[in-house]
């Protein structure tokens, strides 16, 4: 039984750190007005954070992506974003196209 305590602690700590906040968000979210200024601000901050992480991955990549040239990363992101908009904002297109372009570019460059 003693060997299971580590896993139990991890599960409980993981639950306390994440799931409680998710449930509180669900409870509070049902009372929010979707057109409120506060919710517009939250959406803007969330979008800015996602774009900052995306820009960091493109400009300062790590791992295998760091061996690819900047022009390939920028081109894949730009073409992917353009096709995302052209497809009527389909997330699958916006995710799949840059990945395919990066793989093809890395293969073409011999990485």
Structural description of this entry:
With 111 residues, the protein is mainly alpha-helical. It has a domain at 50-109. The protein has 4 helices and no strands. The protein has helices spanning 5-29, 37-59, 70-86, 91-109. Helix 3 runs antiparallel to helix 4 (91-109). It is flat and about 50 Å long.
Through-space gap between termini? 48 Å
The number of helical runs is 4
The total beta strand count reads 0
Radius of gyration: 20 Å
Helix fraction, binned, reads over 70%
Strand content is: under 5%
Overall pLDDT level: 91
Shape estimate: flat
Largest β-sheet summary:
none
- Which residues sit in consecutive blocks of at least 5 with pLDDT less than 50? none
InterPro entries: Brnchd-chn_aa_trnsp_AzlD
Pfam families: AzlD
Organism: Rhizobium deserti
Keywords: Membrane, Transmembrane, Transmembrane helix
What's the structural blueprint in terms of helices and strands?
Blueprint: H1 5-29, H2 37-59, H3 70-86, H4 91-109
List keywords for this structure.
111 residues; mainly alpha; 4 helices
Summed up:
The chain is an all-alpha fold and 111 residues long. The chain has helices at residues 5-29, 37-59, 70-86, 91-109.
